[in-house]
Amino acid sequence: MTTLAAPKLTGRKWLECFALYFVLQGVPIYSGVALAIKLIDAAEFVGEPFGAAIFVAMMATFHALLTSGLGARFPHFFRHSFQPLFADTTLSFSERVTRWLAQPNTALQLLSQALLLSALAIGVLGTR
């Protein structure tokens, strides 16, 4: 069986891939987690000044590093978060985002994240 090796991400392309995972996947997921922690009033670190922002930044960074680094090596394990388009070195940054948005599952993912974040934000605001 002949397989083609994917081009290795270096420099700017790696940073773009990292930014896409960070902003489009990591931040929405961990913002929801921070809101859920705040909602159940388990605010050991989220209740501190800038605690939620630090939590979201750290976890989204870890998510982006893990997914961009190991996603191509273990696609079965990262099947729900790995996007081969983000690591495509032949496409520009805007083309990667455009093609990702054109996928049918992306709309469902973005809509469910928006609804979840909205419901959690209402819950958090309603508790005060």
TrEMBL record:
Keywords: Membrane, Transmembrane, Transmembrane helix. The chain crosses the membrane at residues 18-40, 52-72. It comes from the Bacteria. This is Uncharacterized protein. It comes from Bradyrhizobium nitroreducens.
